[in-house]
Amino acid sequence: MKHPISWDDARAAVHTAATPLPGRPVPLPEADGAVLATPLVTLTALPAFDTSSVDGYAVAGPAPWRLVGQVLAGDASEITVTSGTAVEIATGAMVPVGTEHVIRLESTEVDGSWVTASLPEKQEWRPTGEEAAAGEILLPPGVRVTPGVLALAAACGHDVLAVRRRPRVALVVFGDELLDSGPPGAGRVRDALGPSLPGWLRRLGADVVSVTRAADTLEAHETAVREAAAQSDVVLTTGGTMHGPVDHLHPTLATLGASYVVDTVAVRPGFPMLTATLPGPGAGWLVGLPGNPQSAVIGLVTLAAPLLAGLAGAPLPPLASVVLANDVPGRGTFTHLALARLTPDGAVTLPHAGSAMLRGVAGADGFVIVRPDTTAPTGAKADFVPMPG
User: Fold this and answer.
1) In the prediction, which pLDDT does 20 show?
2) Domains along the chain?
């Protein structure tokens, strides 16, 4: 086993090594959750025409004004407002040529065909290009598409967006001791990662293409990894990352001719995690997570999340900052990731936080980060990595 890399360096190394997947145009609804491959540029000015902000009257010259027509939202009216005339106008309608003021409906008095009011102190319409000029870059590549981004793209006139293809992940679970159903007992435990990791991976922007189990033999490991790699960009494995009698992942990677990017990380829990590149046509990636559930989740946020972001052309996932509601110990020369819940009083670390335990994971918002050779006292600020998604 090599000397472990620091937690911060491991995240950065994996993200830097990932080459973004190709971009492709997709209809707007299909772009949700993907990452922009090209800048989002306005196809027209926003708004594309002078637009009334209120229901009221478009007028020119001094009051009173003679009512000469009406313009509703969606109309391409050819009415021209001249001095002494008014046109009734709806919110969102195109402001007629010649308009000097738009007056709110509630500020006017109407007597038959005549409108009177005091002139407003501010303009009650949105001028062409108030939000953006035609051709302006609104968002750079690498931004994840949210419903808000979709709304902006639609407002700009886009029918499709160029986005990175979502990384395809094949999950392989190792461990002869694992049960797929029923209560644990007689030396067997339930597989907690097979059911849970796909949900976390989808929250990280991946498409999960398969979930398989492999027996604890070298031949079964090699076969499972080869088959998973043939259908995915990333093979994600659980268990087998140490060098025990049934830990076959390292020999499998040696047989396949893989190259390590990260081989163990100086973090507790979870240090026996790894990332490697696989050779051959359509060469892909393998992320090896420890078998203990909490350690596997730490491996997910340490290695898988930065890798998937890099493949999607997105930035390295940022860390949050929290105030601690209790003391958090360090772990010597290793970075300590401590399960925590966010409360109005700050981040509170959780019990049942052993590497093999899940009660803490189920109630956590993420992990407080305590760097090597330090402790984190109550009231201090600390970096925080959220749970996936």
Assistant:
1) 95
2) 5-21+166-311 (3.40.980.10), 23-45+130-164 (3.90.105.10), 51-126 (2.170.190.11), 320-386 (2.40.340.10)
Instruction: Give the C-alpha separation, 358 to 347, whole Å.
Output: 19
Distance separating alpha carbons of residues 246 and 133, to the nearest angstrom: 62
For residues 81 and 58, what is the distance between their CA atoms, to the nearest angstrom? 7
DSSP state of 87: E
Per the CB < 8 A criterion, the answer to whether 157 and 41 are in contact is: no
Give CA–CA dist 156/47, Å, rounded.
9
Mean pLDDT of the chain: 94
Residue 307, C-beta contacts closer than 8 angstroms, at least 6 positions apart: 14, 15, 18, 234, 275, 285, 287
Rounded to whole angstroms, the Cα distance separating 364 from 387 reads 8
Position 15 pLDDT exceeds 80: yes
Q: How far is CA 181 from CA 173, 188, 195, 339, in A?
A: 15, 11, 11, 27
Nearest-angstrom CA–CA distance, 274 and 253: 11
Contact assessment for residue 91 and residue 124, using Cβ atoms and an 8 Å cutoff: no
Angle between helices 249-256 and 218-229 (to 10 degrees): 60
Residue 205 in contact with residue 144, Cβ under 8 Å? yes
Model confidence at 2, in pLDDT bands (50, 70, 90)? low
| C-alpha span between 192 and 144 (Å, rounded) | 29
Beta strands in 186-325 (DSSP E): 189-190, 207-214, 234-238, 259-263, 265-268, 274-277, 285-289, 320-323
In tens, the pLDDT along 222-276 reads: 999 999 999 999 999 999 898 888 889 999 999 999 999 999 999 999 999 999 9
Q: Are 90 and 55 in contact (CB under 8 A)?
A: yes
Q: Which two tokens stand for residue 362?
A: 């189920």
Q: Does 283 score more than 70 pLDDT?
A: no
What is the separation, in whole angstroms, between the first and last Cα of the chain? 32
